[in-house]
Amino acid sequence: SRSLKKGPYINVKLxxxxxxxxxxxxxxxxxxxxRASMISPDFVGHTVxxxxxxxxxxxxxxxxxxxxxxx
Length: 71
Hints:
alpha+beta, 3-stranded mixed sheet, 18% strand
């Protein structure tokens, strides 16, 4: 598990993409390979396509997914 002193790991590129979608109001699927990234409250309502090593699996983020890992 990750140290509380360090805080949650959130992929910077993924977070920028989601924040840009929140500002513009668009709902597109974001592809990511960052399975270790945590889900922040900004991700709620978006679909993230997570790569499982073979293909992308779409995951719709709801409030119950908060503070869990994507992968």
